[in-house]
Amino acid sequence: MTTTAADEAVGYRWRWPALFVILGAEIMDLIDAMVTNIAGPHVRADLGGSETVLQWLGAAYMLAMATGLLTGGRLGDIFGRRRMFLIGAAGFTLGSLLCGLSQSPEMLVGSRVLQGLFAAVMIPQGLGMIKEMFPPKEMATAFGMFGPVMGLASVGGPILAGWLIDADLFGTGWRMIFLINLPVGLLAFAAGLRFLPESRSPHPLRLDLLGVALASVAGVLIVYPLVQGREKDWPAWAFVMIAASVAVFGLFGVYQARRRRWGRDPLIEPSLFRKRAFNGGLVTGMVFFAGMAGFMLVFNLYTQIGLGYSPLKAGLAGVPWSLGMIAGFGLAQPLLKFGRRCFQLGTTIMILGVVGVWATLQIAGLHVTPWQLTPALVVTGLGMGLLMAPFFDLVLAGVEPEETGSASGTLTAIQQLGNAFGVALLGTVFFDLLGDVPTGPSFENAMEVTLWVVAGMLALTFAVSFLLPEKAREESAGH
Fold first, then answer.
1. 314 SS3 class
2. Quick one: which H or E segment has residue 60?
3. What pLDDT is stored for residue 473 in this prediction?
4. Which residues form the Major facilitator superfamily (MFS) profile domain (predicted)?
5. Average pLDDT rounded to a whole number, residues 10-24
6. Which of 62, 156, 205, 326 could form a disulfide with 419 if both were Cys (CB 3.0 to 4.6 A apart)?
């Protein structure tokens, strides 16, 4: 980082403008990860394709980002964080342009992969730059701004997507949800050039391209057959691919351990897998994030295709969930001292909320209104906030300082992989129940059964959460 001696004494001179650039990139990523849930039905009506297109729009982005995140931060350490942020912002903007210009489902899904890969290059750079830009006394304030930004994106993203589709600006329809990234991305690039400092790690870890390739192949091997298997009437190759994914994940673990023994830098520190808290966190996170991502996809498809909501109305229907989540984060703060119990309380409340959504549909049926769904969605969001608040601290309990970077990156990648898995799994459950000739009652039945699957996944989340430590700040011994 290039600063004057005076600047270094108090932190980087342009640290606050730089922080807003980083937060802007976070907002772009968070919104783009969810907008296709709202836009999916309109995309398919315009470009054609089967129901699997609706799943791939989200899964392709999440899977690409999951595998890219394993090495995205390391690229910044080696080649410079500012440089990689700018490359990521430029690539993400280009991917958005290609999404907006897509003339076929295949081109759109491919462009979503490009978006996800460049997001994985752009997003991790912010953490390293914030640590270098801010003095210790301001660090908590800087990181504390991420919570409100996530809340803003979760509330505003679906509403913005729905409004843009309904407004049909310049006759662009659903394409505007991607084209709006062009001015935002260019602004982020220009502001990054002006305000972001150049920094890199003095002792960067080396790249592990074979490790990235193995993780990517394993992810594709499990997501692809889950999405496409139903359409092909579950041929033998679908089950062979799922079994092969387990084998490739195992091979990835063996390779990581051997790479460490060879004195090379692995993608994931093998020692992490000897820690109960970390292993429990991977399983818990995978199940939980899969359930939530799948539910959000199915809920938006049900409200638009099943209930006939407009995109804007569908986006507004999900706002109570987001507001409940924000409230849950706030209520969780004094409860964080209870660690795992706070997590399990949130899980229990979420189960009650999902059952509440089911009960609401039982009572109101296909005439259900957003206002009728509001109480159950608020409860579900409230539970999610209580659950999420202690999660990362619990998982990182017992992780040694030198393992923190690898553990944090792996957890974030697992979150995205869980999202992709959930979209594939619950989307397939929903469409399988819907049948070839969907009608009102078919939609109702498909949604209700899917809700029970989500409740079951949350119950499994509660069960495996006992693998987590009781408190986030327990000593590392025994984990």
1. helix
2. helix 52-79
3. 56
4. 18-473
5. 82
6. 62
Contact between residue 194 and residue 395 where contact means Cβ atoms under 8 Å apart: no
Do residues 97 and 179 make contact, with C-beta atoms less than 8 angstroms apart?
A: yes
3-state DSSP: the chain helix, strand, coil percent, rounded to 5? 85, 0, 15
Q: Give me the phi and psi of 182, to 5 degrees please.
A: -65, -55
Report the C-alpha dihedral over residues 131, 135, 138, 144, rounded to 10 degrees: 10
CA separation (Å) from 318 to 205, 274, 309, 427?
A: 42, 40, 12, 18
Total number of residues shown for the chain: 479
> Of all residues in the chain, what percent carry a pLDDT higher than 90?
51
CA angle 469, 475, 479 (to 5 degrees): 50
Domains 1-199 and 273-479 share a fold: yes
Q: Which CATH architecture has domain 1-199?
A: Up-down Bundle (1.20)
Whether residue 476 has pLDDT greater than 50:
no
User: What are the extents of the domains in the chain?
Assistant: 1-199, 209-264, 273-479
How far apart CA 343 and CA 395 sit, in angstroms, is 11
Residue 199 has pLDDT above 60, yes or no: yes
The pLDDT confidence band at residue 475, using thresholds 50, 70 and 90, is very low
Helix axes 15-47, 52-79, angle to 10 degrees: 150
Architecture label for domain 273-479: Up-down Bundle (1.20)
Instruction: Examine the pLDDT at 304 and tell me if it is beyond 70.
Output: yes
Amino acid 404: pLDDT? 72
* Closest C-alpha among 476, 427, 415 to residue 454: 427
Residue 472: what pLDDT?
67
pLDDT tens per residue, range 71-97:
888 888 888 889 999 999 999 999 999
C-alpha span between 59 and 40 (Å, rounded): 12
Measured CA to CA, the distance from residue 189 to residue 91 in angstroms comes to 10
76: Cβ contacts below 8 Å, ≥ 6 apart: 83, 84, 85, 124, 125, 128, 200
- The pTM of the full predicted model, rounded to 2 decimals, is 0.89
- % of the chain exceeding 70 in pLDDT: 94
